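Progress note, sequence design subtask.
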């Protein structure tokens, strides 16, 4: 029996599994879906779990089931591309004939001393649960620092504000404005929302060091906090660095035109681990997974594999449960929209994601 192993059952891995299971799987092939969690975690909503506005259960999605697919629960500790073997913290190693690596990303601490030790994160389900406890056990008037004013930082800051009116919430951002890669109109809207909701925004902050209850801006300014949440950048999970393959500046694996590791046609890389011409996103992971499925299915049928260019829609962000923003959808010719409509759209996208409607 040939093992087609999908490593990581997040947005990319689960989409790929669904796509493959829609086709006739060859009699000599079985699919093995591997994850350290017994369900898919909806990472795009981890900010709400951390703030306490969404429950653990709401962010879990069951894996697909099929006679030709098994799931393997476990923590992957190594990938040997030469011998085609995956090793686990516990249990037997797993051989593969074909493999898709879709293990997602972790925080990028940019070498800032103390950041890994003293900040809380929302990059994994387990870490987000810890962050939830830290934030929600705080006494009134305690302070939460959010490092990073991109999408995740903004969403968690707004959500904490809605969850805990009694806390001081502060965003520390390196740039001149929040959401620096979005249209200035959008940054203005978001900054105004934070002003109205009593969230402090500080720009031009250069975090040089983190300690137990503070961060340092440059060498001299000490900014205190009871909890500091890090949302200032991501990079692929550390297993990727151990593969000894070509990576881009963000650590993502450089791939051939069919999303395979060059020289290893049996290994695909999907989602946040893959070097794509976009920032990492669930949307990109799902779109890429569909194309990888096309390549694998073409192989099953003995056809020439080809992929379509990845087309992404825009980005939607939440400012609590009632307001939000969107860019890149071409909303009536506008580059961005704000308010209730994009927030409703975001809830709709989440619903579709939970029910695998693309
Ligand atoms: C707060 C927040 C908000 C976001 N909002 C958006 C948004 O609005 N729109 C959008 O498109 N994107 C958004 N993103 C980004 C999006 O969540 C990721 O880009 C997406 O999850 C990437 O999909 P993936 O399949 O590559 O990885 P993931 O979905 O992270 O899946 C990786 C899987 O691998 C498993 N895994 C990792 N390491 C191991 C191991 N060693 N052993 C076993 N299993 C392992 C994990 O458990 C996980 O299930 C957001 C991210 C965050 C944190």
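Output:
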């Amino acid at each position: 029996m040939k093992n087609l192993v999908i490593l990581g059952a997040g947005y990319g891995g689960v989409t790929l599994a669904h796509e493959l299971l829609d086709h006739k799987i060859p009699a000599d092939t079985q699919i093995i879906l591997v994850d350290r969690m017994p369900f898919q975690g909806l990472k795009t909503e981890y900010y709400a779990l951390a703030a306490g506005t969404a429950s653990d259960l709401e962010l879990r999605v069951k894996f697909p089931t099929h006679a030709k697919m098994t799931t393997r629960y476990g923590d992957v500790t190594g990938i040997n591309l030469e011998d085609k073997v995956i090793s686990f913290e516990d249990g037997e190693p797993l051989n593969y004939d074909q493999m898709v690596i879709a293990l997602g990303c972790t925080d990028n601490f940019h070498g800032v001393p103390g950041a890994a030790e003293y900040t809380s994160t929302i990059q994994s389900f387990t870490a987000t649960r810890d962050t939830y406890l830290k934030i929600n056990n705080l006494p009134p008037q305690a302070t939460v620092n959010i490092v990073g004013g991109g999408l995740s930082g903004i969403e968690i800051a707004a959500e904490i504000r809605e969850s805990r009116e009694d806390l001081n919430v502060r965003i520390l951002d390196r740039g001149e404005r929040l959401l620096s890669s979005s249209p200035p109109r959008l940054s203005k809207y978001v900054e105004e929302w934070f002003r109205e909701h009593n969230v402090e925004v500080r720009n031009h902050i250069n975090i040089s060091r983190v300690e137990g209850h503070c961060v340092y801006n440059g060498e001299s300014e000490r900014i205190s906090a009871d909890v500091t949440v890090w949302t200032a950048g991501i990079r692929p999970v550390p297993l990727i660095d151990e593969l000894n393959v070509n990576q881009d500046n963000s650590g993502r694996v450089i791939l051939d035109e069919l999303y395979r590791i060059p020289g290893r046609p049996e290994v695909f890389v999907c989602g946040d681990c893959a070097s794509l011409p976009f920032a990492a996103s669930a949307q990109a992971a799902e779109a890429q997974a569909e194309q990888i499925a096309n390549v694998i299915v073409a192989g099953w049928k003995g056809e020439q594999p080809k992929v379509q260019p990845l087309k992404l829609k825009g980005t939607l962000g939440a400012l609590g449960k009632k307001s939000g923003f969107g860019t890149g959808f071409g909303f009536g010719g506008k580059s961005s929209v704000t308010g209730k409509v994009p927030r409703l759209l975001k809830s709709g996208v989440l619903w579709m994601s939970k029910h695998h409607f693309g």
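The CA atoms of residues 327 and 336 lie 4 Å apart. Work on this subtask will continue into the next period as scheduled.
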